[in-house]
Amino acid sequence: MRHNKAINHLSRKSGHRKALLANMAVSLIEHKRIITTVAKAKALKMYVEPLITKSKEDTTHSRRMVFSYLKNKEAVKELFGTISPKIASRPGGYTRVLKTGFRHGDGADMALIELVDFNETALAAAPKKEAKKSSTRRSRSRKGAATPAAEAPEAVEAAAAPVAEPAEAPAAETPAEEKKAE
Questions:
Q1: Torsion 84-86-119-96 (CA) sign
Q2: What is the model's pTM?
Q3: How confident is the model at residue 7 (pLDDT cuts 50, 70, 90)?
């Protein structure tokens, strides 16, 4: 049984596990996304999110604390210089784990882990979805009751629109017909 087992040991001794997670965290910070197994991705998420939270406060102490985990100067510089300003307003949830299928060799469940604010394709698609969405979602029970009320103004506009268009249409057609006749 696994009562009160907080972390996944990943079938490694503690020193090997710490080195593995530190190296994966450095790779994630440098490349913004990596592909690994689902178990390692979930363990990495628990490992790297507190480090990203510490990077919000750019002090010598927080830099030293993060360096004690990562042991890579370039990764610490990237974390505090590039990543920290982008995630400053985000309260948490800095990483995203997306399952990608199974590895061909051994059938291991694979996942892509990425930093949320650095996914260009998702960021490019997000404004389009927000701009496209114009109405609010309603449940079916409300939709049935709201439909006659919502259609009533459209029916009035539809009835008023055909009356206005024929009055303007002959005026627009007569100069065109006169030009053809000349």
A1: positive
A2: 0.67
A3: confident
- The CA distance from 119 to 26, in Å, is 18
CA angle 119, 124, 129 (to 5 degrees): 120
In b/e form, how buried is each residue of 114-150, taking b as 16+ CB within 10 angstroms? Answer: bbebbbeeeeeeeeeeeeeeeeeeeeeeeeeeeeeee
Integer Rg of the chain from CA: 29
Domain that holds residue 112: 14-120
- The two most distant CA atoms of the chain are separated, in Å, by 95
Residue 56 lies in a domain: yes
SS3 111: strand
